[in-house]
């Protein structure tokens, strides 16, 4: 794969999302875009240092550029986990300072670290000293009753003093009490202008904006103010938009149609099936591929119903594709029929 710098790839990235952006999901996304930066799910330092490292950190070289996101607050543990991540081949080490879940808070990492910017800077200094790849931060603009302007700028400035040059900012506060993690993705209001201001006043830093961005049109508008855009749920639920990323945001190549993405993903699925991976572990990430197109519901039904059966294989994907093709043909035929009737009616008039 062409070598793409971290700065270039940060122009558009796909957010680290728990239980979603596993290695199968990342390979699907890579079949749609060669240039967007991809991230792992957040992995805790404890899991990496004491867990099944081979399973947790496994990724295909074709996923590059891909970053490892860490969760933790002990500088020594973060440095050790970062070294392991770099040795495994990850091209960036990112610290999560934005996740608001109760489990994360109880471990003293994630969004609650917005209250301890000096500790975050110490953690980032330890990571940066441990690895040669970029050490980056993903944060919120604040938590609870914090003044977002003060909390965001304080965190960024202290981390910048520690050598960090790349920040991904989710442009919402996180409410650590009273809102669920799901509500924290929607309820706190977005403050895009504050992130724009951060870039204006810290022009030497790479600032990537995240939160509530649902389309490439919106991404292009944000890119007038910041260096990069991170898509989350939009990229996952409607992955087709990633097929336009390289052409529209990087000026490279042509858009990738979802059918072409399935063709590219298919050999990976076959290889993983041969290794004993269940089909459903991979097809669950494909459910949104035909969102808004004829046959989308049938596509989802076949993958979800047939894909979970014992021994399910590539024939399930092929059957779902055939059903989509039939729906598209019927839809095309109906449109042609309506057009013909409209022309005939116009001629009669």
Automatic annotation (TrEMBL):
CDD domains: DUS_like_FMN. Its EC number is 1.3.1.91. The keyword Iron-sulfur does not apply. GO terms for molecular function: flavin adenine dinucleotide binding; FMN binding; tRNA binding; tRNA-dihydrouridine20 synthase activity; tRNA-dihydrouridine20a synthase activity. FMN binds at residues 16-18, 69, 138, 170, 210-212, 232-233. Pfam families: Dus. Keywords: Flavoprotein, FMN, NADP, Nucleotide-binding, Oxidoreductase, RNA-binding, tRNA processing, tRNA-binding. Its cofactor is FMN. The active site is at residue 99. InterPro entries: Aldolase_TIM, DUS-like_FMN-bd, DUS_fam, DusA, tRNA_hU_synthase_CS. The record marks 96, 182, 185, 297, 300 as: Interacts with tRNA. It is an enzyme of class 1 (oxidoreductase). PROSITE patterns: UPF0034 (PS01136). Residues 14-304 form the DUS-like FMN-binding domain. It catalyses: 5,6-dihydrouridine(20) in tRNA + NAD(+) = uridine(20) in tRNA + NADH + H(+); 5,6-dihydrouridine(20) in tRNA + NADP(+) = uridine(20) in tRNA + NADPH + H(+); 5,6-dihydrouridine(20a) in tRNA + NADP(+) = uridine(20a) in tRNA + NADPH + H(+); 5,6-dihydrouridine(20a) in tRNA + NAD(+) = uridine(20a) in tRNA + NADH + H(+). Belongs to the dus family. Catalyzes the synthesis of 5,6-dihydrouridine (D), a modified base found in the D-loop of most tRNAs, via the reduction of the C5-C6 double bond in target uridines. Specifically modifies U20 and U20a in tRNAs. This is tRNA-dihydrouridine(20/20a) synthase. It comes from Phenylobacterium hankyongense. The lineage of its organism: Bacteria, Pseudomonadati, Pseudomonadota, Alphaproteobacteria, Caulobacterales.
